[in-house]
Amino acid sequence: MRPDRVIAVAKFELLSVVKRWSYLITTFGLPLFLALISGTVLGAQTYFLTQRAAESSSFGLIDEANVVDQSVFEDDGGARVWKVNAIEVELYASLDAAKDDLEAGRIRALYVVEPDYLKTGEVRAVQSDKTPLLSMRGTTVEPVLRSLLRRSLMVDRLDEDVQERVLAPANFVRTRLTPGGDDVVSIDETIDLLVRTTVPLFLGVLLLTALLSASGYLVQTVSTDKESKIVEVLLASVTPEEILAGKLFGLGAAGLVQFAVWSSMVIFVALSASAALASVVAIPWQAIGVAPVLFVLGYLFMGSLMLATAALGANAAESQKLTLGWAMLAVLPLMVMVILLDEPHGFLGQLMTWIPFTSPLTVILRLAVDSAGIAWWEVIGSMLVLILSTWVAIRIGARLFRVGFLLTGSRPSLAELWRQAR
Amino acid sequence: MPVPAIVTVTVIWSLAASPDRLPLVAILAFRGVSKRFGGQVALDGVTLEVSQGEVFGLMGPNGAGKTTLIRIGLDILRADEGEVSLFAAPLDRTTLDRTAYLPEERGVYRRAKVRELLSYLGRLKGLKSANAREAAAHWLGRVGLSHVAEQRVESLSKGMTQKVQIAACLMSDPELCVLDEPFSGLDPVNVALVKDLIEERRASGLTTLLSTHLMHQVEALCDRVALIHRGRVVVYGDLEEIRRRYSPHEVVVWTSMDLVELGVDAIRDANGSWRVSLPHAETAAGYLNELIRSGVLIDRYEPLVARMDDIFVNLVSGGAE
Fold first, then answer.
1. Residue % of chain B over a pLDDT of 70
2. What one-character DSSP code corresponds to residue B283?
């Protein structure tokens, strides 16, 4: 292969793709659009929260059942007030005084513990007719009032410890054995959920989307060459291997840019959206670090197969159909994602690590879920298998590419393809 | 009988190939080349050479194997049997840089700009970026398309696109240029332009392999030809020699006298000329002398030379079975 020809093909293909509106929109427009949507939603939330914070956070309470533990209320300028977090609950003696304050906007809502509360559990919530409809339910005070009522019902009836356990019956502490079997790793439930599902899933989907997107460009470019009949001119100047390599590198670079932009945006959003989360969530940096390498290797492997089979199609639609099988194989790890997340280093995970079609996504998932469970030689070994497979795929792909590229009319049988590709 | 005076005698006489058209060095040579596609024989033991500095005509009916032969000669396809040499060496990518190809099925990137497309194709032929841009500008000027350099190919007419492709083919100044039906889709002005470019190449000592169905273009341009039929070479050699070989043993005589009355075995053509079958073993020159000695007043005298159209039709419609 002559590097100058490969570079010439790669440069032409890269520029052809990156100048397309569809590529620009997908690569830069889509993330910007999503950022815009996220920004708008976050901005709106912030606005409404600020508005709510500016509103009165005082509430009224009338205890007609005489069950509320009044020891928590303190004198505040003649009124009996319970302050918890940013909420103030004022205990009223008469309904009329409370209604006056509600009408005047001094309290946002009035809660009346009905006389037959012990039998019915009813607490009447009264709000002004000026209160917006959407804020009629689920105010932050209601959990506080529930807690107060629960505590009031237990006072002098149960020990304080028992009271605490009634209020918080179980605080789950999750642990998991390390592969060595002797250490115990403590995992917070929330973090566990995030690390074990969201992050790997997202990384995997991102990798797969970028892989299939770049491969899609390859199918498109082969179809264009065949349909425009320029293929003979190309083959009279450069070898099929040089065309194949040039297209792989050029469009791979376009795919890599896309992958980098998407990943950067995701990491940026994740880190900036929740600095607190980032400080406690173990971001799978190993998986993120290995992802570009696996993307490149996976892309070269899938790409060379896709190029060869796409060349056998008479047009873009037929080429898409022919390459669908490869895409399905690449998606396989997503189909068994539940098993992989549950047992990342089980038989299936280990097997799929060594199959070149599935290894990029599987290795990423295993690393992201539990990097300690996958041996370094498995990661390196899967890459070597991928490199070897890519080399074979390019060799066979280039021959099929030459045959397929020049094919017109009916598609030959597999035996005929094999004979000509030898 | 008085000896008549000869008023005018025009003799068109080109039976022998001129010395400057003699083949020199084989640029592209096929020796016993065969190719099969499945059970179908595309080429069957083809042997022929294209020589330096000539315009070589490759003829044959549709499906005869011309394109397959060209593809094998340019390493696009591989032969099942036989040898191919280019510039006196086995096929090699380096030597292929000295060739260019205009396929019959024209192909361009329709969304690319004309200048970009030419520069790219030049780069594929090994030109440096700057040289490719320079050559693109030069050849666009040669084919009269400088004004469309920044336009997309899809905005050009069919004829203009065809000229862009011809420019792309010639821009690397290839020592061997393979043109498959280069005149299709061109108006007479542009046909003349392409013919001029081919003639220029010959004058510069560059070789052109011309595949065409237009026999009058073959007669006008080619030094040597090969006719392929059903994968085999049925005629191969010097154009004039072939025409002579397949010509009837006849001459055409323009005279105001009645040759039949003079006892000559002749037939009067619609245009007033006489078509005379030469006696066996008689040459056209010898028979001319005999007519003059017999007192025939001759205005014009021509040996009848077969047209390539006729040779083609005769051989393809059964003569070469």
1. 91
2. -
Confidence (pLDDT) at B320: 47
Give A232's contacts in chain B (Cβ within 8 Å). 71, 76, 101, 103, 105, 107
CATH 3.40.190 domain extents, chain A: 56-167
Burial of B25 (0-12, 13-18, 19+ CB in 10 A): exposed
Q: What is the pLDDT of residue B13?
A: 37
Contact indicator for B12, B192 with CB cutoff of 8 Å: no
Instruction: Using CB atoms, pick whichever of A5, A9, A228 lies closest to residue B108.
Output: A228
d(CA B316, CA B63): 12
Q: Phi and psi (nearest 5°) for B284? A: -60, -40
Which of A12, A231, A406 minimises the CB distance to B120?
Answer: A12
Distances in Å between the Cα of A211 and the Cα atoms of A235, B94, B221 are 27, 35, 53
Please check whether residue A236 touches B, CB under 8 A: yes
A220 to chain B, closest Cα gap in Å: 13
Class at the top of the CATH hierarchy for domain B248-304 = alpha beta
- d(CA B171, CA B75) in angstroms, rounded, equals 20
Reduced 3-state DSSP string for B65-95:
CHHHHHHHHCCCCCCCEEEEEECCEECCHHH
Q: What is the pTM of this model?
A: 0.69
* CATH 3.40.1000.10 holds for B19-244: no
ipTM, interface predicted TM-score of the complex: 0.78
CATH hierarchy code of domain A56-167: 3.40.190
